[in-house]
Amino acid sequence: MPKIASARVIVTSPGRNFVTLKVVCDDGTTGVGDATLNGRELAVASYLADHVVPCLIGRDAHRIEDIWQYLYKGAYWRRGPVTMAAIAAVDMALWDIKGKVAGLPVYQLLGGASRAGCMVYGHANGETIADTIAAALDYQRQGYKAIRLQCGVPGMASTYGVSKDKYFYEPADAELPTENLWSTAKYLRVVPELFAAAREALGWDVHLLHDVHHRLTPIEAARLGKDLEPYRPFWIEDATPAEDQEAFRLIRQHTTTPLAVGEIFSSIWDCKALIENRLIDYIRATVLHAGGITHMRQIASLADLYHVRTGCHGATDLSPVTMAAALHLGLAIPNFGIQEYMRHSDDTDAVFPHGYRFADGMLHPGDAPGLGVHIDETLAAAHPYRRAYLPVNRLEDGTMWSW
Ligand SMILES: O=C(O)[C@@H](O)[C@@H](O)[C@H](O)[C@H](O)CO
Ligand SMILES: [Mg+2]
User: CA-CA 20 to 30 A from 183: which of 7, 119, 166, 191?
Assistant: First the structure.
């Protein structure tokens, strides 16, 4: 049995910051895990290096479940994004090692493929409705079966989801948070117009999605859901902040637009009531921020009982290691729904060579043993950490709001 001989934390910034854990076994087998927490990266790096790595040395790398329980219960302080991202990194690395030792891709260890590939959605955005439609048409030409639409709000200088770059969206754009202004009324006018124009231009054979990014109250979200119903969206995402799980009941009572939530969840306890009360349709928690493949599989199993499918977060701040892990899990579980796919920069792809590939609107994790993703440590060292924060939002009168 491979024993963990050492583990190191690699912080690199090939266009944006990433925290990676590399676990090395006494037989030379290595595994990688992603521990990136956008804007709070060094907290997880310290949690791992100072508090987790010393507990791993000498352990049997094959005992994935036991090590998960050891780190979760053993910390005494449970849950939270820092703890769960750190546990996730260990968990991903151990699945990677187990796959390499077995000579099998991780999805085979999880029960084998349940489908040909994982349907993904691209992030089409633009300052205007016309620009956004042009970007969406481009995704459609590339074979995407699902596209998320985000456009600027007239009268607002900048808003979540709109990028100067066509494909690449990187919101963590400054050493201190950029301040955006927000108007719900203006936003609620533009989104239905965007969807009407999109159906006109793209037709009805493509899934259309939208990210509200936590900026509406429950009753405002209910209004948006109703207004979008004629355009049959695949989902609206993070319609209202989900600390208040009961808030989704109110949205649900008013609209049949499917609801997705959970990219900031860190454990099954954040979504248990949402799932058991059938208040959502897609769970967006990820292997990275929700405790790794081991815990995400548990969340997916609970969700499956209630017809909730996965729609995991896949923004640029989740490294290719997370993307690979998410694809192995997504390929294997019965209730996979869709996977977000925001492409990384060329620099990021070079630091993390990976085997997953895009064809016909789907990603496949590939058949290399383990996760099929590596870190080029020499290249990583050439991209030192730079502090970068997400923006914040204020209402027009200066009140702090959700971004
Ligand atoms: O769905 C998404 O991709 C977003 O909500 C993210 O871009 C989110 O803003 C970032 O991951 C924050 O780090
Ligand atoms: Mg989102």
Answer: 166
